[in-house]
Amino acid sequence: MATQSLEFGAQKQELIDAIQTARDTARVQAHLFSLEAKERWHELEGRLLNAEAKLEHGGDGVVEAISTTVDELVRAVKDVLRGIDEAFDISAPVSKVMTKDPARVSPDDSLGRAAQIMWEADCGAVPVVNQDGTLVGMITDRDICMAAYTRGQSPFAIDVRSTMSKAVHSASPDDPIARVTRIMGEHQVRRVPIVENGRVVGIVSLADLARYIRNSRGNHLAACVTLEHALAKLSERRAVTADRVAAE
After folding, report:
1. Is the CB of residue 206 less than 8 Å from the CB of residue 98?
2. Please, what is the Cα angle at 143 between 142 and 144, to 5 degrees?
3. Those residues with Cβ within 8 angstroms of residue 3's Cβ, 6 or more apart along the chain or in another chain
4. Which listed site, 152, 172, 180, 241, has its alpha carbon 20 to 30 Å from 196?
5. What are the percentages of helix, strand and coil residues in the chain, rounded to 5?
6. How far apart are CA 123 and CA 205, in angstroms?
7. What is the number of other CB atoms lying within 10 angstroms of the CB of residue 220?
8. 176: which strand partners?
């Protein structure tokens, strides 16, 4: 029963992600719709919100009952969007924008070594992985500075394990770009590690998304609106988490 419940939970989240991606994609491009398309979109938006509410508040049984409806709604939204050519596609897989095979550090590395890797890779954060490549944390240049300052020690005397952020929010290569922007906004992170089969295969930063926008032809305004919500959340004052307090 526990295994079956977990499977239903995963299916439920997959359906919710599909709804949110379809809704976000349409919302940022709604200003381009014809009058007929706008009317159709308003109808679909209401049905999407209703389906999402049922999934979030219903039991396991609702997953099977509503999955066909969600598939039909997502296809209907794609039909509405089909007339907009070459728009920024936030439903595209994140593998399209991620930096592949990013620099990384071990939990046993010193902060001095982590700083060296960041300098050589010209980046401000790196994933922390075990010997088998499994993701166990993230560490930023700010983490290194704050740890050295608050502990009064050399970065070479402090290990990454004691300083890294253990609460890591990741995505998979097949996840839509829209999901990564939601992760950035909801969890106030500027970089999201991309994990496949438990191992780090890439990383997506705000800079990666900006480059994607710059290199895509067509509707740049829609692309900028896509990032607006994430950037607004990133700018809010962040609460200090328990693991961050322990690290510092």
Report:
1. no
2. 90
3. none
4. 241
5. 60, 15, 25
6. 10
7. 13
8. 93
CATH of domain 94-247: 3.10.580.10
Residue 87 sits at the vertex; the CA angle it makes with 84 and 92, to the nearest 5 degrees, is: 115
Each domain of the chain, given as residue ranges in start order, spans 2-81, 94-247
CB 247 within 8 Å of CB 112: no
Token pair for 164: 């890294």
- pLDDT, the chain, mean: 80
Q: Is the pLDDT of residue 14 over 80?
A: yes
Instruction: State residue 244's pLDDT score.
Output: 44
At 198 the pLDDT is: 86
Dihedral sign from CA coordinates of 166, 194, 201, 5:
positive
Rounded distance, CA 17 to CA 4, Å? 20
Residue 36 CB contacts under 8 Å (≥ 6 apart), including other chains: none
Instruction: Give yes or no for a contact between 62 and 114, defined as CB atoms under 8 angstroms apart.
Output: no
